Amino acid sequence: MVFTIIDCVLSGAIALADIVRPESKQAIAALKQMNIRCLMLTGDNKKATKWISEQIGIDEYFAEVLPQDKAAKVKEVQGRGP
Question: Using the 8-state DSSP alphabet, how is residue 42 labeled?
């Protein structure tokens, strides 16, 4: 949410949202047809990540992961096995 203030008075609010490209949902569906479990790892906030995951059919997501922590998270997930 972005708020606009003019002369110390709230004058407006703008809601921002991620846009899901249609081919994203199609790509996830194609991967799932090949029995590939789909995960998303992102630095985005949990609410946005959850929404996107639900829209395109992601099986599991990890939000608010810092860049320096992403490789460790990938290794953690890989350690779970297939």
Answer: -
Hey, what long-range contacts does 50-53 have (CB within 8 A, 24 or more apart)?
51/18, 52/18, 52/20
Q: How many CA atoms lie within 13 A of 29 on its CB side?
A: 7
Model pLDDT for residues 7-32, shown as the tens digit of each residue: 989 999 988 777 889 899 999 999 99
Chain centroid to CA 18: how far?
A: 9
For the chain, domains (ranges, CATH) are: 20-78 (3.40.50.1000)
From the number of C-beta atoms within 10 Å of its C-beta (0-12, 13-18, 19+), residue 12 rates as exposed
